[in-house]
Design goal:
797 residues, alpha/beta, 17 strands
């Protein structure tokens, strides 16, 4: 019920498709300005009328509380006359309230047409609940003439005047975060603390009084009073569980907005950066990710299908329209193994020649040129060996639901996951084979390069437990290296890391922590050079685990790719390791395709799913079954697991890893690239919407959301299998009908591949399921009280 306080940014993030951007801006400025004036008119009538009423009641001997309640009961009926205006021909408060609140229906249209980037469903709920309350107060004399109506009206008006004015300023300046006047910004993100509770209270009073109003109950004619009664009373039941989470969500939004408002300006661009795409009137360079990402994808597809590439370039709604182009790309890759590799090579080549690299001296070159240049600067090498002896009894253990499982218990759990459809049989086989081959877990002579060693989903902790030799790459932040090195000391493994000065010249550990680490963006060539020369006779397994948000994710993926590419070319025996996301496009086994189809037959008949499908149309609960694609080698099945909300940059970053994986495997390198499950990491669950959805998703068989400890344990087991089992698809000696089938095996997807519905279409339903579970005790309690009261009235007790 976000409508009680400041709305989401319905009218700030403007999508520039269709009509010209200037026309859209002028229209949205006019719309918001008119709405602002309308709500200001409501206040201009309501406040003086209420003051006059209070004054009159006090003069008549009433107490202050009685006077305020009487004034509240009369606010809905305010007119120019009651406000003391000389021009009594102006419209009444009720009329203007109805017009200006009804105008908010246009916000749903704005969202549906792409004029703004607000979700249509959320906008509809926000505006719709207001319209319901408006209808009830207009149709119920009892609701109109009680203090709660004034509380509702004033709460609405007091939040809408600054909200619409804020939108006008945001559109005019082009910067909602820092371009709007601070008083408006503060009001936009602070009024909810008072106006959410007051707005909810006022609306509840309208609903309850309407349910007791004979006029309102009789709107459908005699005999239908119960329908109108439950129509009115349904909303207090809905509001009960939703109010507090919405207030907390707005508090989170406020914290985020203020953090962005007062964030330090970004430093000058350096190292690996997006190319310049535009220049502002003041000379400031613009580095937008959209045109660059579009061109990279277009060039990738152009290698096999120029017509589809042109469609990418003509796409004007890239933020929400990128998915269909990725589907076209994957389908094009299915035509032949050669086409799959041509797409990958063309996409990465374009990225290398398009992205720029700015040296410390300020010289700008292409990233390709920077990676081919000679470098005089070199890293020193740090090394710390753990204090513990190598464990004698090495066995595979998985952390699951608070305990460590191994042996037969582990195998039984793996079988349960496979039978339920949460993981693919190939993933289950890989884990069991790893459990049956404890020698695979002897890592005393194995070297793992972790790009992003401190990542939440990285295997650093597990590798330390097993005594591996880890070459750690992470940011030059002392606290990171203190944590990593201290952990390594308490293990039987070792950690090797880059230093800016010789380890022997460091006075103590604190100085060593301060000299450790590197920057994948600004020092990419130096990191590559250091790794190429490090431990020359030892085969490296290079894992790409670094993750950043938004456009930075593409940059860090490209930086890691450059290192992986050059290590594959310059070091014999190099293998690569990736964690694929389940929210992507993957080729899948035919059995997974058929299982999704069977689950759809079951779930499509469930009342809840039928209702959500009816309400959401094509947006909710889309069938998770795509038509197979014919190509050299037969028919190929794929799943569309992309979550549009994650954005095109996330999809591009993961696609680059796919491209490198199939190129490296075709070149003779072992590549372990398996799908990891949806995991409740801190970076995910801090987004309340994702956290709520995760709680409701297990309703849809065979979903299961895993803790980070479980995900890391199972994925390292599959990695060990890929590195040691010569029959694994990770081994390039085993032929595949299409290179992208690399991602079909060993998938621990958490249910995405076999669910009845696409993952991007179950989010709202999952959130609703979560809140229904939260609300269940309250509903049962209310029902129990109702039964008790009814029994008392009927004389049974």
């Amino acid at each position: 019920e976000a409508h009680h306080g400041p709305h989401h940014n319905h009218n700030i993030s403007v999508s520039y498709s269709g009509m010209s951007s200037k026309t859209k801006q002028l229209y949205l400025i006019a719309y918001n300005a008119i709405c602002c004036l309308g709500w200001a008119y409501v206040l201009a009538l309501g406040i003086p009328s209420a003051i006059a009423s209070v004054t009159s009641s006090l003069d008549g001997g009433s107490s202050l509380l009685e006077a305020v309640k009487a004034a509240g009961a009369n606010v809905y009926f305010a007119t120019p006359s009651t406000a003391g205006w000389s021009n009594e021909s102006s419209p009444s408060l009720a009329f203007v309230l109805t017009v200006v609140q009804s105008a908010a229906l246009l916000e749903v249209l704005h969202s549906a047409m792409g004029l703004v980037r607000s979700p249509v469903f959320v906008t509809t709920l926000q505006v719709g609940s207001r319209i319901v309350a408006l209808h009830m107060v207009n149709a119920s004399p009892r609701a109109q003439s009680q203090w709660g109506a004034a509380l509702m009206i004033f709460s609405w008006a007091l939040v809408e005047v600054p909200r619409y004015l804020f939108y006008v300023a945001a559109i005019a300046t082009g910067d909602a975060t820092k371009g709007t006047p601070y008083p408006l910004f503060w009001l936009r993100y602070s009024l909810f603390a008072v106006l959410y509770p007051t707005g909810i209270s006022g609306e509840l009073s309208v609903f309850i009084n309407s349910s007791k109003c004979d006029t309102f109950l009789g709107l459908l004619g005699g005999g239908n009073e119960s329908i109108m009664y439950w129509y009115a009373m349904a909303f207090p039941i809905i509001y009960a569980p939703g109010a507090l989470p919405m207030i907390m969500n707005m508090a989170g939004n406020r914290k985020s907005a203020f953090k962005k408002r007062f964030a330090r300006p970004p430093p000058p661009p350096s190292g690996l950066v997006w190319p310049v795409t535009d220049t502002k009137a003041n000379g400031e360079e613009v580095r937008s990710s959209t045109p660059t990402a579009k061109e990279i994808l277009a060039c990738a597809i152009e290698a096999v299908n120029p017509e589809l590439a042109e469609k990418v370039r003509k796409e004007r709604k890239w933020r929400f329209g990128y998915v269909k182009h990725l589907i076209n790309m994957v389908e094009s890759q299915c035509k032949s193994p050669g086409d799959a590799l041509k797409v990958a090579e063309a996409g990465l080549n374009k990225a290398y020649t398009t992205f720029q690299f700015i040296s410390p001296e300020g010289k700008t070159t292409s990233f390709a040129s920077a990676m081919s240049a000679e470098n005089d600067t070199k890293f020193q090498t740090g090394f710390v060996k753990g204090d513990l002896p190598s464990p004698k009894d090495k066995k595979l253990e998985i952390s699951y639901k608070g305990k460590q499982i191994s042996g037969e218990e582990l195998k039984a759990q793996v079988k349960s996951w496979v039978d339920y459809g949460t993981i693919e049989p190939s993933a289950g086989e890989a884990i069991i084979k790893c459990a049956d081959n404890p020698s695979w877990i002897d890592l005393s002579d194995k070297y793992f390069v972790l790009l992003g060693a401190g990542s939440a989903m990285g295997p650093f902790e597990v590798l330390m437990q097993l005594g591996a030799n880890v070459v750690a790459i992470d940011l030059d932040r002392p606290f990171i290296w203190k944590r990593l090195i201290e952990r390594a000391k308490k293990s039987s493994g070792s950690i090797t890391f880059p230093l800016t000065k010789s380890q022997k010249d460091c006075a103590d550990d604190d100085e060593m922590y301060g000299c450790a680490g590197c920057n994948l963006f600004t020092q990419t060539p130096l990191i590559r050079d250091w790794l190429v020369d490090l431990y020359p006779n030892k085969p490296f397994t290079v894992g790409s685990y670094a993750y950043l948000n938004g456009a930075l994710h593409v940059q860090v993926s490209l930086a890691m790719d450059a290192i992986c590419r050059d290590l594959c070319e310059r070091r014999t025996g190099t293998s690569l390791a990736y964690l694929c996301t389940p929210t992507d496009l993957h080729l899948i086994p035919k059995e997974a395709h058929e299982a999704a189809n069977e689950n759809y037959k079951v779930f499509s008949k469930k009342p809840f799913c039928m209702l959500m499908k009816l309400l959401g149309g094509k947006k909710f609960l889309r069938k998770n079954v795509c038509d197979p694609v014919s190509g050299v080698g037969g028919e190929f099945y794929y799943v569309n697991g992309i979550s549009v909300a994650q954005g095109p940059n996330y999809a591009m970053a993961k696609r680059m890893q796919h491209w490198r994986a199939i190129i490296a495997r075709s070149g003779g390198n072992i590549v372990s690239s398996n799908v990891a499950p949806s995991t409740s990491t801190a970076s995910v669950t801090q987004n309340r919407t994702f956290a709520w959805a995760y709680e409701g998703m297990p309703y849809f068989k065979p979903y299961e959301i895993f803790a980070p400890e479980t995900s890391k344990s199972v994925m390292i087991a599959i990695l060990f299998h890929d590195l040691n089992n010569p029959d694994s698809v990770a081994n390039p000696k085993n032929p595949l009908a299409n290179p992208n089938q690399l991602f079909s095996s060993g998938s621990f997807h958490g249910g995405v591949w076999r669910c009845a519905y696409e993952i991007d279409s179950i989010g709202e339903s999952s959130v609703l399921l979560y809140f229904s579970k939260v609300a269940a005790p309250y509903v049962m309690a209310a029902g129990g009280i109702g039964l008790a009261v009814g029994a008392k009235i009927m004389g049974y007790v």
